[in-house]
Every structure is written in C-alpha cells, then in structure tokens.
Amino acid sequence: MPWPSLGYRCGVAHDDAPSLDGDSSVAAALTGGTPQRVGWFRFYFDDERWEWSPEVARLHGYEPETVEPTTRLVLSHKHPDDYGHVAATLEGIRQTHQPFSTRHRIITVQAQTREVVVVGERLYDHAGEAIGTHGFYIDVTPTRQARAAMLDQAVAEFEDNRATIEQAKGILMFVYRIDSQAAFELLRWRSQETNTKLRTLAEQLLADVLALDYGETPPRRTTFDSILLTTHQRIGAHSAQT
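^ thats the sequence. predicted structure below, dont judge the formating
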C-alpha cells in the first residue's frame, strides 16, 4: 500500500510499545545554550511505529513528548515540493529494508521551513533480524548566529587535534553538502552518542574512507552513510593494527 497523500497537521495515532533497551540519549550530545541540530529517530517495519528524540520533535516545532510521531505525521511536515521524493523513499525502505539518505525541507508547526539531512541504517533485533531503520536528522538550514560561537569554542577545546578533525569535517561537508558548522556538530554528536573521543572517531572515519575501494566508480552516498553510523565499531580493530 503506498504512503498516504495528505496535507499538513494530520491526526496522531498513539502506540505504547516500548523502545529498545540500552540506547543512549542524544539529549547530551550537544551542550550549551544554542538549539541542538542533530537528533535520532527509529522506524519499525511491522507496525510502522516511529520514535524520535526531543531534538527531532523540536525540529518539527513540537515540545518533547507532546506528540506521538507516525508515518502520517512525519509526511505531513514535508515541503510540498519534496513530498513525492520523501514518500517514495519511505516506500522503498518499507519494501526493501535498505539503508537510505535524503536531503529535503520540512514545514514546522510554526510554518517555518527547515532544511534537513536524514540518514538511516538497518535496525536489528537480538537475533540479527532487520526490524526497522534508525539514524539521525541534522538541521542544515543556513544560519549565522550562535553556530560560529559554538564552533569556535568547541574547536578550541580540541586545538591539538584540529588537523584530523578538520579533515573528517571536510569529508562530511563534501558527502552531505553541508557547511563547516553542521559538519562539526554531526561529528561531535556521533562522538558523544557513541561515547568515543572526537579525535579517535575522526581518525577512524578517515581510515575507513581511505580504505574504500574506489575502482572506476565512486562509492555511493549510502556507503558513506553506513561508514558514519558504524565507524565507532571499528576503532578497536584499527587500534590493534597500529
């Protein structure tokens, strides 16, 4: 059954199914007084149940825990010019259970337009069965306010590691077509989400990208999506070889 075609602010269906145990919160991923630009989501195939972090709720204009995300609600926030592309992407995920990434616009509850990058990877149960998709939203709406100040402060904390971090940022900027501030926030979020030192994560990301077999055809962006979401899992193996 295709995804519904609908206008904004559709009704919400409630589902009390619990979330997976042991997942870390993105609430602590970015510190400081500025709005957080990165948050996580999960989508379960069987019952089409959605979960999202407080940051993603706020990105759509909701206060955390005031609305239950559903497919209808998620689609209702897509910009009219991007709705068809996103709906087709979601249909493909439901049918094939494949990883995905998309860049599109959403309309908030307050009627503001936000530009987002959404990346999803397969979500597995304890038996290794793909039961859904999970990943992150990053707000890449062009801004010029507190972002620069936050970046300067964060980079100063890691001045000794700047070269490695800048290289990793450059990869993210190139792959996802985002600015320097957004790339740093994404890298920093993955660092804190996985409880991994920022420099260590950046080094492994660079090693993973350099290890790609380019051949005659450049890797697809989904390859980079998977690397970004799983880089922390290879850090021990990389360290053992060096």
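Confidence is low (pLDDT under 50) at residues 1-35, 238-242.
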